[in-house]
């Protein structure tokens, strides 16, 4: 079932949206900078919470950082580095924490500590710790504090069990050019999120690393990377994907001001292939891609390589003509929240029919109309991906509210500003903005 005609645009103008830099690229780039102690001006910066956690670590590490929300200059200061106590703290970004641990382990002669939030520690790091120790690292973990005695790490043949995350492989890869001998990573048969690993490898290759990658192994030889003095980071594909799916739900044509066929490949670019398969019409320009929604059929989609798409695609499934099955999603129990449980709980509250298995979810079309759907508050679990997905459901059914909206700042602080642009000129059709919230866009529940 698609949205009621009264919420569809009568304006044929296609809204264009620009997205700030990919946090996946930015966090990897920051590790490469720190590892090589290089300077760089980064254009199309993204001051989201996850990136700012990494930026705070860089400042403590010895970098001076200047600039605006859209542009940052990073300059390594040897004296600041020497004077640093190398005491780091990570509270919300698993990517930043796991990547930074790999960096500190490979800093010979430097003793450092990382204090980690309980939620990050509970998501697990044992595969990475075991691999680092096998390369010569010296680590000591006590509760949520990790003490690292930096060493010259030697390369070796390593196989990391990676059925839940690709972070562990990328953490080793990004610092491998500084190892004493080649790193040979044997990829596990159950390796997930290969596009994220390839993104790390592609970024290394872009800056001159001697690297070989196949479906079975990755080999990185020691060597110096060659950095340019500036880079413009591609827009964030994960945020763009949420808006693309939202535009399809709302039946609003949308133009994204980047071209996924160029630049570094991001995992969530797969959203375009998925939507075409379901019935959406896409048109590629030189520096843009336009989305023209149509009636959608369901089908079966494997999300093993792009798990961040699961929340938004689950909501999209409610508006397909036939059931939509999402496979390869069992590990979403181990993300910022239990996204699997968060989505199924929301579907139950909506009265939607679905079938959930260990590694799949089938969503049936929502047959209730606008007026009969019960008023309810959906629990985002303080998870940015759930908040984004539920927002577009709220825009179709205003009687649905969200438990909170602030979590979107983890990846896209301007999310609700972009929502208002997407909805122009019909912003007023979607209810009163909650004036007590610093982030605009949707009403929240009392919880």
Report the CATH superfamily of the largest domain.
Enolpyruvate transferase domain
Number of strands: 22
Percentage of residues in helical conformation:
25-40%
Ends apart, CA distance between termini: 30 Å
Segments where pLDDT lies below 50 for 5+ residues?
1-12, 426-447
Write out the strand line-up for the largest beta sheet, numbering strands in chain order: 1-14-16-15
Radius of gyration: 22 Å
CATH-derived topology of the largest domain:
UDP-n-acetylglucosamine1-carboxyvinyl-transferase, Chain
| Second-tier CATH architecture of the largest domain | Alpha-beta prism
Principal-axes shape call = globular
CATH class of the largest domain: Alpha Beta
What number of domains?
2
Summed over residues and divided by their number, the pLDDT gives a mean of 88
Question: Quick recap of the structure?
Answer:
With 447 residues, the chain is α/β, with parallel strands linked by helices.
Description:
This protein is α/β, with parallel strands linked by helices and 447 residues long. It has 14 helices and 22 strands. The longest helix is centred in the N-terminal third of the chain and has 14 residues, at 23-36. Strand 11 (211-213) and strand 12 form a beta hairpin. It has helices at 23-36, 49-61, 78-83, 94-105, 118-122, 126-134, 167-175, 194-206, 237-250, 270-278, 310-317, 339-350, 384-396, 415-423; strands spanning 15-17, 40-43, 63-67, 71-76, 87-90, 111-116, 138-142, 145-149, 157-159, 183-186, 211-213, 217-220, 230-232, 254-256, 281-284, 289-292, 299-302, 324-327, 354-356, 360-363, 376-378, 400-402. The strands form six sheets. Strands 1-14-16-15 form a four-stranded mixed beta sheet, covered by helices on one side. It has two domains: 5-19 and 236-430, Enolpyruvate transferase domain (UDP-n-acetylglucosamine1-carboxyvinyl-transferase, Chain); 23-222, UDP-n-acetylglucosamine1-carboxyvinyl-transferase, Chain.
């Amino acid at each position: 079932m698609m949205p009621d005609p009264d919420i569809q645009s009568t304006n044929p103008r296609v809204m264009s949206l620009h997205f700030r830099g990919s946090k996946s690229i930015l966090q990897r780039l920051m590790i490469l900078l720190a590892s090589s102690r290089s300077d760089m001006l980064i254009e199309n910066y993204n001051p989201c919470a996850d990136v700012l956690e990494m930026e705070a670590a860089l400042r403590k590490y010895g970098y001076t950082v200047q600039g605006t929300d859209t542009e940052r200059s990073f300059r390594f200061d040897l004296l600041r580095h020497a004077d640093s106590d190398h005491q780091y703290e990570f509270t919300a970004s698993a990517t930043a924490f796991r990547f930074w641990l790999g960096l500190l382990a490979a800093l010979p002669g430097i003793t450092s500590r990382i204090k980690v939030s309980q939620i990050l520690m509970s998501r697990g790091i044992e595969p990475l710790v075991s691999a680092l120790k096998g390369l010569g690292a010296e680590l000591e973990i006590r509760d949520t504090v990790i003490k690292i005695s930096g060493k010259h790490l030697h390369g070796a043949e390593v196989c990391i069990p990676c059925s839940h995350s690709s972070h562990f492989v990328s953490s080793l890869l990004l610092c491998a050019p500084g190892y004493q001998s080649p790193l040979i990573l044997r990829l596990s048969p159950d390796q997930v999120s290969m596009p994220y690993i390839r993104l790390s490898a592609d970024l290394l290759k872009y800056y001159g690393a001697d690297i070989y990658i196949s479906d079975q192994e990755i080999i990185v030889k020691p060597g110096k990377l060659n950095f340019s003095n500036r880079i413009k980071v591609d827009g964030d594909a994960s945020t763009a994907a949420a808006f693309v799916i939202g535009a399809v739900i709302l039946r609003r044509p949308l133009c994204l001001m980047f071209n996924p066929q160029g630049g570094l490949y991001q995992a969530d670019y797969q959203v375009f292939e998925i939507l075409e398969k379901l019935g959406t019409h896409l048109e590629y320009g030189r520096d843009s891609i336009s989305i023209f929604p149509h009636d959608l059929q369901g089908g079966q989609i494997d999300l093993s390589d792009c798990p961040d798409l699961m929340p938004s695609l689950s909501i999209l499934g409610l508006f397909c003509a036939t059931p939509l099955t999402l496979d390869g999603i069992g590990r979403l129990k181990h993300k910022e929240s239990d996204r699997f449980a968060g989505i199924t709980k929301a579907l139950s509250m909506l009265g939607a029919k679905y079938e959930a298995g260990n590694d799949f979810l089938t969503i049936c079309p929502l047959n209730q109309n606008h007026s009969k759907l019960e008023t309810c508050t959906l629990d985002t679990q303080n998870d940015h991906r759930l908040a984004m997905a539920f927002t577009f459901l709220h825009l179709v059914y205003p009687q649905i509210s969200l438990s909170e909206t602030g979590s979107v700042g983890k990846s896209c602080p301007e999310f609700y500003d972009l929502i208002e642009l997407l909805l122009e000129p019909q912003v007023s059709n979607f209810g009163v903005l909650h004036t007590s919230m610093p982030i605009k866009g949707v009403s929240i529940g009392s919880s």
